[in-house]
Design brief:
single chain, 167 residues, five-stranded mixed β-sheet, globular, binds zinc ion
């Protein structure tokens, strides 16, 4: 199976959406992006399966080629992508906006896991997002499988810290 990263591009007016699927690793290749006339690049990262340091380095070089020329919006970021936003300087360029990302929940009763999509303006806002008041997702939610409470499977102040100083 070829898990090399694939990127589908959709142009809608002055907005360019890139949906990435596959593995961000040593086989990752990125297209030269022409952002002439593009107001905003939307990166949909829900399809990123795994990432490693070589792939991340390729990512950093690629995003630098257009990051300063256009607006940047990250959407549907899975947990392993959010982890990189929190630890890897430059992964999320400073002016980029995160519109949605997944928050994992775990059920101790039946071992079920769920990823809940947190949406900007609805479930969180930058600047306050690492506080309890800023992220309105609850610490517990009913498990869809056994109805017992399932718990947020990340530490709030760590997982949401990438939003802390952004506005
Ligand atoms: Zn359960």
């Amino acid at each position: 199976m070829d898990d090399r990263i694939a990127i589908s591009q959709t142009r809608n007016g002055d907005q360019l959406t890139l949906a990435l699927t596959g593995n961000l690793n040593e086989n990752a290749e990125f297209p030269q992006l022409d952002v002439n006339g593009v107001r905003e690049v939307v990166l949909d990262l829900s399809g990123i399966k795994m990432l490693n340091s070589v792939g991340l380095r390729t990512w950093l070089l690629w995003i630098k080629t257009f990051a300063q020329k256009t607006g940047l919006v990250f959407v549907n970021c899975p947990r392993h992508v959010v982890d990189q936003m929190n630890i890897l300087d430059g992964f999320l360029p400073t002016h980029a906006r995160v519109d949605s990302f997944f928050v994992p929940y775990f059920c101790e009763s039946c071992d079920a896991t769920e990823s809940i999509l947190a949406r900007r303006g609805q479930d969180f806002m930058e600047g306050t997002a690492d506080t309890r008041e800023g992220v309105t997702l609850p610490d517990e939610r009913p498990c869809p499988h056994c109805q017992k409470p399932m718990e947020m499977d990340v530490l709030r102040d760590r997982y949401f810290s990438f939003l802390k100083y952004r506005k």
